[in-house]
Design goal:
Blueprint: E1 3-7, E2 13-17, H1 28-31, H2 44-49, E3 59-64, H3 70-84, E4 90-94, H4 99-109, E5 116-120, H5 124-134, E6 138-142, H6 159-176, E7 180-185, E8 204-209, E9 216-224, E10 232-238, E11 241-245, E12 263-270, E13 273-283, E14 292-295, H7 299-312, E15 321-325, H8 337-349, E16 357-359, E17 362-363, E18 369-370, H9 375-384, E19 389-393, E20 407-411, H10 414-428
Parallel strand pairs: 3-7, 3-8, 4-5, 4-6, 6-7, 14-15, 16-19, 19-20
Antiparallel strand pairs: 1-2, 8-9, 9-10, 10-11, 12-13, 13-15, 17-18
């Protein structure tokens, strides 16, 4: 046992005894030789968002507001895992619903695997007893706020209880090399269990959200020790559960026979996935108290783009102005700025943008069109879906791949883009 002398800033010396390590320190070259083994759940989009499958001992926290569909999602994942495995069982433990209530949902979504075990339990010790008895290959706990430990004072759902339960379950999962999926209810401030007390205790954090008035649900990876932390996948809420949406671009644009004024299509980046989105604008005549309505976009940024658009062209935007996205899409990507401006100008002057034209670019206060990241992925997605004329920021065309049948037009300033709108509209008319 070696003695280590520690010198503090005060100049005083203290002596402490070091303990011989039980495991030696390994060279990083030796550690990186071993590849991380993953087991796919069989639920393709879920596997994609976590990086390709579950890692042994991985602890995943799925957070979201009550009623968004977290329980339905994880029950479907549990069913797919149980169907795909040959020996281990899957244990689904709910502290919110009885086994009979879970069974109603399971019948609705077709989760009827014999290796999927259901339990309703609120006591941590009893939950651990279920794990000891069945030795499952995957455990789902819905939700972590409903489980309480007898070793900790306080009610279930309190910060100390939630942290203790998560730490104990994480240790068990890693010692058994058993993946663990935890449901965490979010508050209105989009934090889990009040403070963000759990995110540093788990390996992966997924947020599941969506508008209650829309069938679309988005599952995002905000932290992932075993994969990309910016991935996003889409699901569609249906009567028989959640359906995977492998090509979400089709959901975020309107399908019509001919172009109409006040619309423009762009490509946004959600995580690392390019998705088409249609921006729609409505501009009415001047009124004594003009209104501004924004849906699916940042209202402050749209207000700035309204001012820049009015200064750059003949469009008069002093009346009522409404801007929205199609399909309930929520866009924070500045690459959609140019499409917003074109939609506003198109609505104001009554000229439609042709159906095969798409616009990508960030608009500055000066009206300059600035480059945006992932431009190659954006234009490739646009070409795949049949867009043949793409407006891009100046100086970016040389970096783009040559795509047969696709014409890239550079625009340096919003004036250029609005002039292009007028010329293209004349051709369409």
């Amino acid at each position: 046992m070696a003695e280590i002398t520690v010198t503090a800033n005060t100049g005083l010396k203290s002596r402490t005894s070091g303990v011989a390590p039980t495991r030696r320190a390994l060279p990083v070259s030796e550690v990186t030789k071993e590849k991380v083994s993953r087991s796919q759940t069989g639920f393709g989009e879920f596997d994609r968002v976590i990086g390709g499958g579950l890692v042994p001992g991985q602890v995943v926290l799925v957070a979201g507001e009550p009623g968004v569909g977290k329980s339905t999602l994880l029950l479907a994942v549990a069913h797919h895992v149980a169907e795909g495995r040959t020996q281990p069982t899957v244990l689904y433990v709910s502290g919110e619903e009885s086994v009979e209530q879970i069974g109603v949902r399971a019948r609705r979504i077709g989760a009827d695997s014999e290796r999927l075990l259901l339990a309703d339990e609120n006591d941590l010790a009893t939950l651990l007893g279920h794990i000891e008895e069945h030795d499952p290959g995957l455990v789902v706990v819905d939700s972590v706020q409903t489980i309480a430990s007898g070793e900790i004072d306080g009610r279930a759902g309190g910060v100390s209880q939630v942290v203790e339960v998560t730490q104990v379950l994480s240790r068990v999962a890693k010692s058994r090399r058993m993946p663990l999926l935890l449901v965490g209810q979010s508050t209105k401030q989009d934090s889990v269990a009040g403070p963000r007390a759990l995110e540093h205790l788990v390996d992966t954090v997924l947020t599941f959200d969506g508008d209650r008035n829309s069938m679309l649900r988005l599952l995002r990876a905000t932290k992932n020790r075993y994969g990309p932390a910016d991935e996003i996948v889409c699901f569609e809420q249906a009567d028989d559960g959640l359906r995977e949406v492998r090509d979400p671009s089709d959901l975020f644009r309107a399908h019509r026979d001919k172009p109409v004024p006040g619309t423009c299509v762009t490509v946004t980046i959600e995580g690392r996935r390019p998705m088409l989105a249609e921006i729609q604008a409505l501009v009415t005549a001047t009124s004594p108290a003009p209104r501004r309505g924004v849906t699916g976009l940042d209202s402050n940024r749209v207000a700035m783009l309204v001012a820049v658009t009015e200064r750059a062209g003949p469009a008069k935007l002093s009346g009522d102005v409404f801007v929205a996205t199609v399909g309930g899409a929520k866009i924070s990507d500045p690459g959609a700025d140019l499409a917003v401006c074109i939609a506003l100008a198109s609505a104001a002057v009554g000229l439609p943008m042709p159906a095969d034209v798409l616009a990508i670019g960030e608009v500055a206060l000066s009206g300059d069109i600035r480059p945006v990241p992932y431009l190659t992925q954006r234009v490739t997605e646009a070409a795949r879906l049949g867009y043949r004329r793409v407006l891009v920021p100046r100086g970016t065309r040389r970096t783009l791949p040559r795509i047969d049948g696709v014409e890239f037009s550079e625009v340096a300033h919003l004036d250029d883009a609005l002039a292009r709108l007028r010329r293209l509209s004349v051709v369409v008319g």
